[in-house]
Amino acid sequence: MKLKLTLALAAAVAAGSALAADGAKLYLEKTCIACHGKEGKKPLMADYPKVAGQNAAYMEKQMLDIKSGARANGNSAAMKGVMAIVSDAEIKAIAEYLSKVKP
Amino acid sequence: MKRSLVLTVGLLAAASVLAGPPAPKKEGIEGKDYKWNAQEGEKIEALKLKGDKKRGEEAYEICGACHLPSGAGRPDGTFPQLAGQHTTVLIKQMADIRAGLRDNPTMYPFAATLTDPQELADVSAYIEGLCIPVEHGKYDGKDAAIKVAQGKELYEKQCKECHKPNGEGDKEKFYPVIAGQHYKYLLRQMTEIRDGHRRNANPDMVKVIKPYTDDQLVAISAYQSSLKMPGSMCKPKAGKK
Predict the structure, then answer these.
(1) Residues whose CB is less than 8 angstroms from the CB of residue B193 and which lie 6 or more positions away in sequence, other chains included
(2) CB atoms < 10 A from the CB of A37, how many?
C-alpha cells in the first residue's frame, strides 16, 4: 500500500516535470519566443508583456481566449495568427512552464 | 454632414497613429487608385542596395524563430517557406507589410523592427541564398494523384506563364518562387487573393483567379506544392536512419 502510494507520487512528480520540460520545448516550437523573448523575459515590443513568472491559470485563460477570439483587444491579433497550432493541452504546459520561470 | 464625416475620419486617423502597432493601413486593391507594386518608398532604396549575406545572417536570427533557421517555415502553413525566394519578392512583401498594404498582424512587428532599407536588403540576400528544403507540406488527401493532375492542367493553362514551369517565378517582375512552398500556405494566399483580402495583390492575377472555385484552388495548390526547382533544392540528407 505504502509502496503503491510512493510509486504513484513518484509518477506524478515525474509527469509534472515532463510537463514543464515539454512547456519549455513548446515555448520554442510554437514560436512564443519570437515575440516574448528568451524565457518570456524580453518581449519584442514595449507593449508586449513579460510572461515569465506570471500566474499559470491567468496565462492559460488568456491563451485560450485569444485562440477562440473571445479576447480580441490590444495586440491579440498578432498572437491569434499562431494559436491555431497550439492545442489546449499544450497551452496548459506552456503556462505551467512560464509560471515557474523566475522573472 | 460631410464636414462631420471628414472630422470623424480625421479623428480616427489620429487615434490610429497614437495607438502605435498594430499596423498602419494603406489603400490597396480595394481602392480605385491602387497601383500594384508602385515604385516608391524604402522598397526602391532597398532594391538598389547590395545585400550583405553575412550581416543578413545575423539579422535573420530573429526571423528564424518562426520561419526556422533553414527558412523552411512550417508544413501547417502558418509560416511560409522562405528559403530561395527572390530578393525582390522578399523586399516588396516586407515593405508592403511595413507600409500597411499587406495585412499581417503577426508579422508586422517584426517587419516594423527591421531598422532600415540596408537591413532589408541584407536579410533578403541571405534568405535568397538558402537552399529550398525538399520536405514540406503537401496535399495529403486520398485523391492526391487526381488533385495534382487536375491542378497541373489548370496551372499550365493559366499560372505557368508568370510562375514558370517549375515554380521559379520571375525575379525581375516580383513574381515569387512557389516551388517548395507549403500546400496550406499556397491555398490560403490564393484564396485571400481571389477574395480581395490580400490587399497588395497584383490585379492581373486577381482577374485570372477570380472565377476559380475552392476545389480548383485546392487542386492548383496541390500541384504547386509538388514542384521542384532544379539546382535550388537542398540535397536530401545522406544516411538518414
Answers:
(1) B201, B205, B206, B209
(2) 17
The answer, for B4 touching chain A at a CB cutoff of 8 Å, is no
Cα A98 to chain centroid distance, Å, stands at 5
pTM of the complete model: 0.83
For chain A, the C-alpha Rg in angstroms (whole number) is 15
User: B21 CB near a chain A CB, below 8 Å?
Assistant: yes
Q: Residue B189 in contact with residue B159, Cβ under 8 Å? A: no
Contact A64, A25 (CB under 8 A): no
On chain A, the residues whose CB falls within 8 A of the CB of B108 are: 78
Domain extent, residue A31, equals: 2-99
B179-210 burial, b for 16+ CB within 10 Å, e for fewer?
A: bbbbbbbbbbbbbebbeeebbbbbeebbebbe
ipTM comes to: 0.73
Chain B residues closer than 8 Å to A78 by CB:
21-22, 105-106, 108-109
Fold of the domain built from segment(s) B144-224: Cytochrome Bc1 Complex; Chain D, domain 2 (1.10.760)
* Residue B126 and residue B53 in contact, taking contact as beta carbons nearer than 8 Å: yes
Instruction: Give the tens place of pLDDT for each residue, B119-172.
Output: 999 999 999 999 999 889 999 999 999 999 999 999 999 999 999 999 999 999
Answer for the pair B42, B117: CB distance below 8 angstroms, yes or no: yes
Tracing cell 497551452 back to the chain, one arrives at A91
For B91, counting Cβ atoms within 10 Å of its Cβ (0-12 exposed, 13-18 middle, 19+ buried), the class is: buried
For chain A, the domain total comes to: 1
Q: Do A81 and B21 touch (CB under 8 A)?
A: no
Chain A partners within 8 Å of B113 (Cβ): 44-45
Angle A75-B193-A67 (CA atoms, 0-180°, nearest 5)? 30
Backbone Cα Rg of chain B: 19
CATH number of the domain residue A32 falls in: 1.10.760.10
Question: Among B148, B236, B136, which residue's Cα sits nearest to residue B178?
Answer: B136
Q: With an 8 Å Cβ cutoff, are B21 and A47 in contact? A: yes
